[in-house]
Specification:
Keywords: Oxidoreductase. Helix content is 38%, strand content 19%. With 527 residues, the chain is α/β, with parallel strands linked by helices. It has a seven-stranded mixed sheet with strand order 17-19-20-15-14-21-22, with helices on both faces. It has a five-stranded mixed sheet with strand order 23-8-7-24-25, with no helix packed on it. Strands 11-10-9-12-13 form a five-stranded parallel sheet, with helices on both faces. The N and C termini lie far apart (54 Å). The structure holds NADP nicotinamide-adenine-dinucleotide phosphate. The site of NADP nicotinamide-adenine-dinucleotide phosphate has 28 residues, from helix 6, helix 7 and helix 10.
Length: 527
């Protein structure tokens, strides 16, 4: 049952006077549930509990934390049909997507549980003492990663499960040993409350300290800002708009003690279509890209918003086929009216720029909150001169840019902002003959793709989901995949520390059986 209350640790609470509703974009009406926005006392109480939980939680054996993460996945499964129904009502997304996202969310939690047991994430590094070294004796030094403290996580609007209450930010922070206070996304508060109930049940079942997790409702920016400014919050995870991410980043840096904000923001995910690829498989790629641009109503941070090619018959044919293919696709419902309005504004603003051509223009009766896809064509020189054309339009929108030659193509890539992904379509010989294109693109992105589409982000250790600014605030870290844990830990060296007082990961006897670097050698042996 949805109560509309906040979770302050294990306690459900509705002390604030401000209420709000989520929205069913398909029916174009508010949902039936009333949510209570967290007031300042509830925010304070949640952070205080998280701070108190930090020591007992971070000192638990990794196997206990792993049990907790697996139990969250189990409890999410127990929510069953109700979670799927509320997800669909609050997002307008179809059942298949709800099921897929739930599976991904549970899979992420289990992957972090497995990582905890595998143990190499602590990067245990041991350099034993050499008392007789000349001219100076060498001290015993042992280093490992430790958690940074309570983390504020902002639920994303475009992934109500996998990037929200029990999503990648939260799972990675809990795995690292950091309690989490979630600021639920206002448009998915019901989904968030159900998932929170599962997390609390899992915490109780596995004996976690009260305060290891809290969930706060809010319908405007104040709750998130207060959380970010709270001295006992030590890091922030965010996925959303550039403006939202940067507002939090600036706030965090104005604190007496600045803290890291890992914000994953906008990206237009450039795609370079080399001539050979289009000559051989132009129709194939056009169909693939029509699907990728419109997937999930274009509401993916990896949506291909920019396609670059070299003028000629192959590129013209590709553009025509892409336009024909995309016009066959039914407009889909967007997540909520704000995202829909943002899409309409962005689409209109970019389409109104001089010397741009609308390649698609679907007409007819369109249901409310449904996004009509748009492809815009422009010459490279126009694109280079007009920064408005470089902006992300969040939805099923893409710009096709025609370059005179490879040199101009490289010039355009060099003028792009940082991106999550970049894609090259071509054959392998063409790729070999285009080192400048590949090199320019690699410098701009976090993930570079050959002959594929950027949508679809695998959750695995080798995934990089982040990129040079403004794609994210710190290009060294990923928000997807098990490496995401690295955002919430910091290295500590223990010098000449009594052996029995060292954390288990650094003791001579390798009781955890993890891989460690001992005197330069990677090994799981005892010392
Ligand atoms: P958003 O406006 O950035 O909001 C995301 C979360 O951040 C919300 O919980 C919001 O709180 C909070 N927030 C926003 N601005 C803030 C501020 N100045 N201070 C403190 N908290 C703030 O994103 P959205 O509502 O999910 O979608 C809006 C637009 O974001 C989309 O149209 C799209 O352009 C972009 N977006 C991009 C991605 C991506 O991956 N690139 C993903 C999702 C959305 P409240 O809503 O409670 O105020």
């Amino acid at each position: 049952m949805i109560t509309g209350k906040n979770y302050i640790g294990e306690e459900q609470s509705a002390k604030g006077s401000k209420t709000f509703h989520t929205f069913n974009p398909k029916l174009n009406i508010p949902t039936e549930w009333t949510f209570y926005e967290a007031d300042i006392k509830e925010i304070e109480a949640a952070v205080e509990k998280a701070s108190k939980a930090f020591d007992p939680y971070s000192n638990l054996p990794y196997v206990q934390r792993a049990k907790f993460l697996n139990a969250i996945a189990d409890e999410i499964a127990v929510l069953g049909e109700q979670l799927i129904t509320v997800f669909m009502q609050e997002s307008g997304l179809p059942e298949g997507r709800a099921l897929g996202e739930r599976g991904r969310t549970m899979g992420q939690l289990r992957a972090f549980a497995a990582l905890l047991l595998e143990g190499s994430w602590v990067a245990a590094t041991i350099d034993t003492a050499q008392p007789s070294r000349e001219p100076m004796p060498k001290v015993d030094l042992r280093k490992m990663m430790v958690p940074i403290g309570p983390i504020a996580v902002f639920g994303a609007s475009n992934f109500p499960l996998a990037f929200s209450t029990a999503g990648g930010d939260m799972a990675s922070a809990l795995a690292a040993g950091c309690p989490v206070v979630v600021k639920s996304h206002p448009m998915h508060a019901g989904t968030g409350e159900l998932v929170s109930s599962a997390i609390i049940k899992a915490a109780q079942r596995t004996g976690m300290p009260d305060g290891v997790f809290s969930n706060l409702n809010s319908s405007d920016v104040a709750v998130g800002q207060l959380l970010t400014m709270h001295p006992k919050i030590k890091g922030v995870g965010f996925t959303g708009s550039f403006n939202g991410g940067m507002a939090l980043y600036r706030l965090a840096n104005q604190r007496k003690e600045p803290i890291p904000v890992f914000a994953e923001m906008g990206s237009i995910n450039p795609v370079v279509a080399l001539p050979g690829a289009l000559k051989e498989k132009g129709a194939y790629w056009a169909a693939q890209y029509a699907g990728s641009i419109t997937l999930g109503a274009g509401q993916f941070c990896t949506n291909p918003g920019l396609i670059l090619g070299i003028k000629g018959a192959s590129f013209s044919n590709f553009i025509n086929t892409l336009s024909a293919e995309i016009e066959k696709i039914e407009p889909a419902c967007m997540l909520h009216p704000n995202i829909y309005d943002g899409y309409q504004r962005g689409k209109q603003e970019l389409s109104a720029q001089p010397r741009t051509e609308k390649i698609t223009d679907l007409k007819g009766e369109i249901p409310p909150n449904h996004a009509v896809q748009r492809i815009l064509a422009v010459d490279a020189k126009v694109f280079l001169e007009n920064p408005i054309l470089h902006r992300e339009v969040f939805g099923p929108f893409s710009i096709v840019v025609s370059c005179s030659d490879k040199e101009e193509l490289v010039h355009v890539i060099n003028h792009l902002e940082g991106q999550l992904t970049g894609t090259i379509l071509g054959d392998e010989d063409e790729l070999k003959r285009s080192p400048k294109v590949a090199n320019a693109l690699m410098k701009r992105v976090g993930r570079i793709i050959f002959n594929g589409v950027p949508t679809g982000v695998e959750v695995c250790p080798s995934m990089m989901h982040g990129g040079p600014f403004p794609a994210s605030t710190d290009s060294r870290f990923t928000s997807v995949g098990t490496s995401a844990i690295k955002r919430w830990v910091r290295p500590v060296s223990f010098q000449s520390w009594p052996e029995e007082l060292l954390p288990q990961a650094l003791q001579n006897k390798n009781v955890l059986g993890i891989m460690r670097q001992v005197n330069g050698e990677n090994t799981d042996r005892n010392i």
